[in-house]
Amino acid sequence: MTHVILCTDIGTTSLKTALFNPEAKILSYVKQYYENPAEPDWQKSFAETAKKIFANNKNDFSLDAISICGNGPTLASGNFKLMWNRYFPHSNNEYKGKSIFLPQILNFKEIYPASFKTSAYIYPCPEYLCHLLTGNSFVALNEKRFSCAYWTKEELAEYNIPEYKLPPYILSTDEYGTVSEETAKKFCIPKEVLSKNGTKVFCNGSDFASFLTGTNILEPGRSANRTGTSEGINLCTDKPLCAPGIRTLPSICENCFNASVLIPESGSVMAAYKETNFPDLSYEQVISLSLQNKKSEGYKIIAKTFKKEKAAIKKLNSVAKKAGCKPVTSLVISGPHTRFPEALQLKANILELPLEIPECTITELSGTFCNAMAGLKKTASIAEAAQKFIRTDRIITPE
């Protein structure tokens, strides 16, 4: 009998689920695209992934926990979903505070007043799926300082948002609840795999916090590059960095912060180039072809992105050094770009930095696993879990 943890990342266009053993090895992985990304059915997608994962293994596992993270500031209630990428007036104009979620809550209230009024609770998307699994209602913070990115009592009062519409806070390592046999059936989880001690549910909150854990950039000077449609350079610091173009948020570790420089639309530019010029080739084939010809438009797009990353690192390092913080000296790479060794070598050459490639490159899932291990008291903290379970697969050095 193998004890396992089921980890899920609720994305914008798909839901990813992996089954981990206690040593953080992925035993099974499924990516499920939504039928309608504008109105995703997270319960159905989660059930589809669970069904596939447990299809041939239901008698071999004890499911100790389910751990979930997701995108934000997506909101959900019993009768409504409002995706993070739907922009409305409050997102850009009226709200001037620090919260990421409050502008979207204001949008919800103003544009869909009937749904707002009849909703018992309004949840971030991972909390909503945890609610469906357990029947309980909470909002999970990876660290208490994250409340400013969600909402505070003072701001709720200022913007006339009833506090009773929002679930109370817990920490992400607190148990959200357990899964009953009846609920397990709805989610295509075989009753045979449910733990005899109760299958616990943990909410790891935002996929960003899961990324920080899954790359183990939880000590000052540790840094990572989250790749994808857009990306960013992230640096863990022991002081908040304040400068134009740098966004500073709490780290999940007390007394640490995460400073980041965002690089919007970096991956989407390459995706558009592929669809326009090579619609019948895979993304991998287009990257390979582009790197073979330095004069090609594809090569220029790739190199330009890496040069933007270098500029972002230069900006971070300049501000960090002035503040007396450790600068970026190496970079953990997360996400889909880890599939392209030739591109990674070019990246290392342009950045003039060593690149660390983790064993699990879907770092949101490995970070969510670490949160569950801390919640199950297998480690003393999320940081200890990351130190123990986030392993480097290889290091690419500049040539």
Write the layout of secondary structure elements.
Blueprint: E1 2-10, E2 14-20, E3 26-33, H1 42-53, E4 61-70, E5 75-77, E6 80-82, H2 89-92, H3 102-111, H4 113-118, E7 123-124, H5 125-134, E8 139-141, H6 147-150, H7 153-158, E9 169-171, E10 177-178, H8 181-186, E11 200-206, H9 207-214, E12 223-226, E13 231-237, E14 247-250, E15 257-263, H10 266-277, H11 283-292, H12 297-322, E16 331-334, H13 341-351, E17 355-358, H14 363-375, H15 382-389, E18 392-396
Parallel strand pairs: 1-4, 4-11, 8-9, 12-16, 16-17
Antiparallel strand pairs: 1-2, 2-3, 5-6, 5-7, 10-11, 12-13, 13-15, 14-15, 17-18
What does this protein structure show overall?
The protein is globular. It starts with a strand and ends with a strand. The protein is built from 15 helices and 18 strands. About 35% of the residues lie in helices and about 25% in strands. The chain folds into two domains: about 1-210, 2-Layer Sandwich (Nucleotidyltransferase, domain 5); about 215-360, Nucleotidyltransferase, domain 5, CATH 3.30.420. It has helices at about 40-55, 90, 100-110, 115-120, 125-135, 145-150, 155-160, 180-185, 205-215, 265-275, 285-290, 295-320, 340-350, 365-375, 380-390, and strands at about 1-10, 15-20, 25-35, 60-70, 75, 80, 125, 140, 170, 175-180, 200-205, 225, 230-235, 245-250, 255-265, 330-335, 355-360, 390-395. The strands form four sheets. The chain has a seven-stranded mixed β-sheet with strand order 14-15-13-12-16-17-18. A six-stranded mixed β-sheet has the order 3-2-1-4-11-10, with helices on both faces. Strands 6-5-7 form a three-stranded antiparallel β-sheet. A hairpin with a 6-residue loop joins strand 14 (about 245-250) and strand 15 (about 255-265). With about 400 residues, the chain is α/β, with parallel strands linked by helices.
